[in-house]
Amino acid sequence: MPVTPRTARIVWLRGACAGVMLAAFGTALWAQSATTGQIYTCVDAKGRKLTSDRPIVQCLDREQTILNPSGTVKAKLGPVLTAVERSQVEAARRAELKQLAHKEEEKSLNRSLLIRYPNQAAHQRDQDEAVAQLMLVKHAAAARVTVLRAEGAKLDQEMAFYTKDPSKAPPKLLRQVRELTQTLAAQERFLADQDSEIERVNTRFVQERKRLMPLWQAKQVSATPATAR
User: How far is CA 106 from each of CA 111, 116, 167, rounded to the nearest angstrom?
Assistant: First the structure.
């Protein structure tokens, strides 16, 4: 089909209109991006205030502020850390989490103790009962030691006949002396262990009482009517 001047003019007009429409559409897209885009701002190492539509390279070692188009703060962008700095931050974070866990553990322990011992009388009663049980065991062990020592005294009298040469004593007597010596040593160790256990129990109750005293006082204050304070 031959192209007439009229046809060429129509094609040119259509192309021009399309170009104008594309330009307008592109301008609208740019305006929309500028309207919804975020702004990065910071002060670099030289004290200059920098602004950009993307993270600022000069401020990678410091905090950057991300602004909304309206100028309000949207978020904060932390500095890019080195491997050593990241390790330090992680170590600090772990220490913080450990401290928080310790505090929660302390709170849980306080709650458990307060439920078990609502007042000092209950705590003292439990301590007295625990020590009394240990004292019964200790007295039984001490009585056993007394018996063993008495038996040992009798064996010593029999061994007195063989003072010059103990090897000439009857095998049965030697065996009895050996077994009694071992049993007595074990019983004396057990007796000493009971003393240590009594001391440990008393120490535990003393430590618990120090922890519980302020809790009891706080509980008493909270239970007191406001008019009576």
Answer: 9, 15, 63
